[in-house]
Write a structure and sequence with these properties.
The protein is built from ten helices and no strands. The protein is an all-alpha fold.
Length: about 210
């Protein structure tokens, strides 16, 4: 008869197997539908008063936090597979592209609805460090989004493509620092985001070094 520890391991294996089976059946483009729907839903809430008395600021914040969560989710795919056996690798590219469009929505709300003029947008980017950092993260995301397709992978070659897409690491760090610098006073949430992102990146670097040595 299995011991209590063995029963727990078997249960965990069953759960992981169920998740992996469901993931194999679910197409990756589902992520795009979910992201698009959520972007639209938040915009609808802003239009109808569902985001409070300052809908533009609230919408800007909601898009920014959602984008940061998606960046964390993309970084988590590989550690999740190594630590638990849950394989969501097929969704990683879609998660990254979804993060780009959510952050594009965040930038658009800020630039068009909040700041409103190109001259003021440039002034804010130059004069406010947290805006500068956020803009740097957004700019670094553009080549990642443009090359997140099989054609780019074939043309660039796997090694060059993977090297380029390591930009996702500084993007996530800059995004977290942008959030941390943006909030007023001491708030634990942006600190947690930054700590989680740094931990995931350090774990990836450790695995890469171990693989290179082996």
């Amino acid at each position: 008869m299995p011991t209590h520890s063995e029963r727990k391991d078997l249960l965990l294996m069953d759960i992981v197997g169920y998740i992996n089976t469901a993931a194999r059946r679910l197409p990756a483009w589902t992520v795009y539908i979910v992201c698009s729907t959520w972007i639209g839903w938040l915009f609808y809430l802003a239009l109808t008063g569902g985001l409070g008395v300052e809908p533009i600021n609230a919408l800007e914040r909601e898009y920014g936090e959602l984008g940061l969560k998606l960046l964390v989710a993309g970084l988590l795919v590989t550690p999740l597979r190594k630590w638990t056996g849950v394989n969501l690798l097929k969704f990683r590219r879609a998660i990254g592209v979804g993060a780009f469009f959510v952050i594009l929505a965040h930038f658009t709300v800020w630039a068009v609805l909040d700041v409103q003029t190109g001259e003021r947008v440039w002034t804010e980017i130059v004069k406010r460090p947290y805006v500068t950092i956020g803009m740097a993260a957004f700019v670094l995301m553009i080549p990642l989004a443009v090359t997140s397709n099989d054609l780019s992978l074939r043309k660039m070659g796997a090694a060059s493509w993977r090297k380029l897409h390591k930009l996702s690491f500084p993007v996530a760090v800059l995004g977290a620092v942008h959030y941390l610098w943006l909030v007023k006073g001491f708030q634990i949430e942006p600190i947690i985001y930054l700590a989680v992102i740094l931990s995931l990146i350090l774990a990836r670097m450790k695995w890469n070094r171990a693989r290179a040595v082996a």
